[in-house]
Amino acid sequence: LRHRIRHLLHFQTQFLGLDHQSLDLRIEAYNLFNRVIWGAPVTNFSSAAFGQISSQANTPRRIQMALRLVF
Known about the structure:
The protein is mainly β. 0% of the residues lie in helices and 38% in strands.
């Protein structure tokens, strides 16, 4: 059984300004600890790469940030 644990970090805050203005900040990190889930090995007996794992089943770490000004 393959474990597919997703480590997600989410941070969001709002800075209030004057005259009903605000600045929203949002930061997300997917696969935060950059853990690798290996793909399936090559199962073709006649292949020179038999038994080797050359792929990754999950995506590498991704961090994104958004900044929004509301006025």
